Amino acid sequence: MTGGDDAPTRAGQGDAPSPADRVLAVPCEGDDLLALFALETGERLGEIPVGSHPVHATTCRGRTVVATMGERSITAVGPSGEVTRVETGVLGPSHFATANGELYVSCSAGDALAVVDPEALTLVDRVAVGAEPHELAVAPGADRLYAGSRREGVVDVVDTETRERIGAIDAGPDARVQGVALSPDGGRGYAVDQRGARVVAFDPGGDVAGDAASAAPVRGEAAVGADPYDLVATADRVFVPGRGDGVVHEFDRNLEPIAVREGFSRPVDVLEVAGERWVLDAGAPRLRSLDGAVVETPAPGLVATPAGEGRVAVSHYDDDSVSLVDVESGPVWTADSPAYPFGSVVV
Amino acid sequence: MTGKRSHDDDANTETRRGLLRAAAGATVAGAASTAGCLAVSTPASVSAQYEVSGNVAHFVGPGWLADNRDDVVVLDARGAEQFRRERIYGARHVPFDAIAARESTDGGAVPDADAIAAAFGEIGVAPDDDVLVYGASVGSRVTRVAFALAAVGHEGAVNVLNGGVSGWNGRLGTGSRDRVAATDYDPDPAPSTWVDREWLAERVGTFNGDGPGLVDTRVPEAYLAAAGSDALNDDHDRHGHLPGAVDVHWVGNVSGRRMTDPGRLVRLYEVEAELDRDETVVVYGDDNVDPTSTWLTLKAIGFEDVRLYDGGFGEWANVDGDRGRYPVETATNVVVETEGSVGGGDGGGDFSCTG
């Protein structure tokens, strides 16, 4: 998740407004920095040391919060640049989600979600989940949170009122759950099994009570391209990029096949920009829409963030640069960045 | 055999080194020299290789025991059968299960000081006795006895015999144990020698950083939670290690039957594991026996405050209730390879967000 409670949202949730003074904050994993760029011009505004291996960022209560995977803490950067570390106690903070006014952080090197008070910037709890939790998804009512376990092949279900794991959905034998998403209405959940190259649909409100993971909420599954990682769920579609095969599978909400989009190099994400779905390709310097339109980018992109007005901020991980790309006219600007820019956020 | 063999009768005492006993009086240096010329081992040359020199605490060689034999209570940490077959003359057999006893507290499992003290009392150990512990080598059964004595606040000196019984070239005994008068061992529990689960839970996130050192003494596969590994304990609900722990397999403390070269141990723990000898260091394993090897080794090379998590990973992994308070880590690991280890493995999961 790259957005926050006051940030542009990601694919499927539309573009964001774009005041001229907005800043693109980019965690740069290789240099342990949060690099800041003027969104409109690409002017490099500075860098803030944030700790080891920053990978994703979100905004919360006026702060930019950075997941530093090499730490047992996350880092909050205030509007004036003040830095606060918030201990998680467990290594590998990677993804954020907000529920009930609290910030959940998956600690991907352990078996817990850290729960942070974003106002006080303190750890308020930890929720035990399956080992190596990764992506998080929150139900529309924010009463339940779903965390995929890379090691245990389950989607843990957390009651956000009590901050307790109330059960887990079994994604299948030897599953390695990476991406987790819910449809916008919360009626269907999805989990990507990277190891099995599958996507699983589940009932988010299904009965998962009990210590053992249950397959009862599972409503279907489908094969996808090799080495899938993330997925995007919209009101009526599910998109799963298969990085190893260069394809994007498109399903309806019940995982009935709609199309297999081919011809990508290493597709990693599907973004909604200017009313169209665009595929980010980590192996080719371009964005390509599902309708076949192509816009060249300065370099392949690993992560992208919608920036409003038909534009998307692209992190060129292997090229140590970031760019702002207009899907109609191409690159607006390109700027060098510290090493390995990753999941940016617009502040 | 039902007859009681007299331990006072050397001529009738069967030992595998009976033939060599005559050489026991030779000086270490002289015997070693002779052994070199003749290409044979003598009891004295064997003994000499287990002598301990330098600034090492708690580990003593056979020569030390020979010099102090009449002043120390000698405890045998091995199994009963080994004890009956051959032992250092006059040694008392430690009831091992009893000295590893735990009791449950609100904070978790801790050494059961009353049970441990009672066990030592049964074999006639008094709180102010100077004690020498030996085993087949300097493995964890030996060090557990040393820890148990510390845990009950033993006042006398506690040392372990480098090389174990194999290095001893003095008088040996065999057969059933000697009768000793029991003592009323009144324990003075020393909680500074251990930590419990809650002590650790309060410090999660600080280990080997701003807080205490923390050493996982298990094989790397257990520490790494290597999928499919035989090293994973089937009784555990969870696998991995306490957050921030560094893995140094305890067998690296032992080289054959003796302690690893102290210089190597200093490098291992201070340089490679980056532990600070002036700070508190906690050691743990699956149980409360093996990690005592590291507990005593660190103390021997000068670490001031070393403590055992007596509940061990077994307690942590299977704790009831709010497991978020007791997390385990699986990915991103620090394994310090030791000569006795089985390697780092790569089954601990990747540590990336790029897949």
Automatic annotation (TrEMBL), chain A:
Gene3D superfamilies: YVTN repeat-like/Quinoprotein amine dehydrogenase. Residues 1-22 are annotated as: Disordered. SUPFAM superfamilies: Nitrous oxide reductase, N-terminal domain. It comes from the Archaea. InterPro entries: Host-pathogen_enzymatic-act, N2O_reductase_N, WD40/YVTN_repeat-like_dom_sf. PANTHER family: DIHYDRO-HEME D1 DEHYDROGENASE, PROTEIN NIRF. This is 40-residue YVTN family beta-propeller repeat-containing protein.
TrEMBL record, chain B:
Residues 68-174, 214-325 form the Rhodanese domain. GO terms for molecular function: thiosulfate-cyanide sulfurtransferase activity. The keyword Repeat applies. InterPro entries: Rhodanese-like_dom, Rhodanese-like_dom_sf, TAT_signal, Thiosulfate_sulfurtransferase, Thiosulphate_STrfase_CS. The keyword Transmembrane helix does not apply. Keywords: Repeat, Transferase. PROSITE patterns: RHODANESE_2, RHODANESE_3, TAT. Gene3D superfamilies: Rhodanese-like domain. This is Sulfurtransferase. The lineage of its organism: Archaea, Methanobacteriati, Methanobacteriota, Stenosarchaea group, Halobacteria.
